[in-house]
Amino acid sequence: MIDKKDLDAFKASLHGELLQPSDSGYDEARSIWNAMIDRRPDIIARCRGVADVVACVNFARGHSLKLSIKGGGHNIAGLAVCDGGIMLDMSLMRGVWVDPISRTARAQAGCLLSDVDRETQLHGLAAVLGFVSNTGTAGLTLGGGFGYLTRRFGWTTDNLLSMEVVTAEGRIVRANENENSDLFWGLCGGGGNFGVVTNFEYKLHLVGPEVMAGAIAWRAEDSSAVLEMFRAVMEKAPPELACIAGLRIAPPAPWLAKDIHGKPIVALFVCHSGQLAEGEKLVAPIKAFGKPVGDIVQRRSYVSQQSLLDATQPKGRRYYWKSEYLPDLKPDLLAKTISHAKAIPSPHSAILLFPLDGALNRLAEDCSAVGNRDAAWVLNIAASWEKSEDDRTNVEWARAAWQDIRSFSTGGTYVNFLTEEEGDERIHAAYGDNYERLIEVKTKWDAKNLFRMNKNIVPVTR
Ligand SMILES: Cc1cc2nc3c(=O)[nH]c(=O)nc-3n(C[C@H](O)[C@H](O)[C@H](O)COP(=O)(O)OP(=O)(O)OC[C@H]3O[C@@H](n4cnc5c(N)ncnc54)[C@H](O)[C@@H]3O)c2cc1C
Fold first, then answer.
1. Residue 233 carries which DSSP code?
2. Pairing relation of β-strands 350-355 and 377-385?
3. What tens digit of pLDDT does each residue of 72-127 get?
4. Domains located in the chain, CATH noted
5. Which of 188, 365, 389, 404 could form a disulfide with 157 if both were Cys (CB 3.0 to 4.6 A apart)?
6. Binding site membership of 110 for ligand 1 (Cβ less than 6 Å)
7. CA 83, CA 33: separation in Å to the nearest integer?
8. What's the CA-to-centroid distance between 199 and ligand 1, angstroms?
9. Entry pTM
10. Among 416, 453, 454, residue to substitute to test ligand 1 (most atoms within 8 Å of Cβ)
11. What is residue 244's predicted lDDT score, i.e. its pLDDT?
12. What is the DSSP code string of 235-251?
């Protein structure tokens, strides 16, 4: 129990609101993307600036409270919300400042991807971010981050210039390659283990505003041929071309032929982020392949491409994922993917293959915590359904598919795709040889493990 006098004084010290369970807005603030997670913090601080963040960290430390940090609230394991304790809700801090001359952007930690894309695209620039526009930039960046631009420019963190961080002691520090470089190294993939990041400075790249991009789908009967074509195209594709493959049941989307709705399909989400004419040439063989049941690969704004998948991932459904990094797409792996997709028990689930190969493979494994420089693909077995009574069926489908496919893995896995139950062994797998150094950085910057609502790196106790 927090002393009422202390709580009142803390509340008065904040610029943002402090919510308790009886306050209106409390339930909305604690709710996150994955409805499987239902946790109730004792208090929620809706931070309005760095001073609020410092006050929260000091209050949590001073009262030995559990502390969680909510960026976009998209983490599958629900790491944004704690039971009891204090949740720092960063969602009111969504400013973005772009410098088109230096091609950099500074984004506050409550930004969603769409906030950053909206501002950077005004200048024909883009940061390396993910595929769904309402994901939080903070969690995505701190775990590594990948999207349509990754084959060209590497992990999101390979394009991160600096961060402002509130440490466990409540100090404000800058982290970059020259200042607090060990902290910077750890934050580039090590998640929220070391402090509260209040803003991120990204390197930007010339992209769009128009790109050759969209989605195209075929009947599931053609999966084998389509995935073989996909593999062959991607093997030769320049880094400007990124395609995600997805196998699922067709949603009632207007771009898909009506007679395919509710039936299984194989789809490609395509984005060529270079010259339009070159993009047109490169996507032509994909568009000409077989008999698509829907094709909206065309000239479009980069921003529209960044939100193309949003409707498939609404907040408030139940989600469970299993994921691995892959070195390549072996024929056996593709055959198994097709066979597990046939058994999908929910119309919202999918098996997805995201491309990573290119720029990130050219850097040294230990140049930042994210590592996994041998990964060429991310496999995500993404179960999604509506009712709690269907939890078991859907979770079991994802687990069974993963058990069957995981032998194709590099041995690594994406920390941002780990579910609630995935603990030490999987965290270790996510960091590989960088794990020991992460423990050193954690021990230096957060020896008492104040920041533990994350895929936790446990400090050494002395
Ligand atoms: C629909 C969907 C699509 C996705 N697509 C991609 C994709 O294309 N590419 C990709 O790389 N990932 C993707 N992800 C995974 C995504 O990177 C993670 O879910 C990530 O955690 C989301 O960030 P968030 O800010 O929304 O997370 P939250 O749930 O808010 O937080 C997640 C973790 O980050 C920590 N954290 C949040 N903010 C801060 C902060 N300011 N300082 C310190 N720690 C903080 C929290 O403590 C928590 O441990 C996707 C996820 C979803 C649900």
1. H
2. antiparallel
3. 999 999 999 999 999 999 999 999 999 999 999 999 999 999 999 999 999 999 99
4. 4-89 (3.30.43.10), 96-206+435-445 (3.30.465.10), 210-417 (3.40.462.20)
5. 188
6. no
7. 17
8. 15
9. 0.97
10. 416
11. 98
12. HH--TTEEEEEEEEEPP
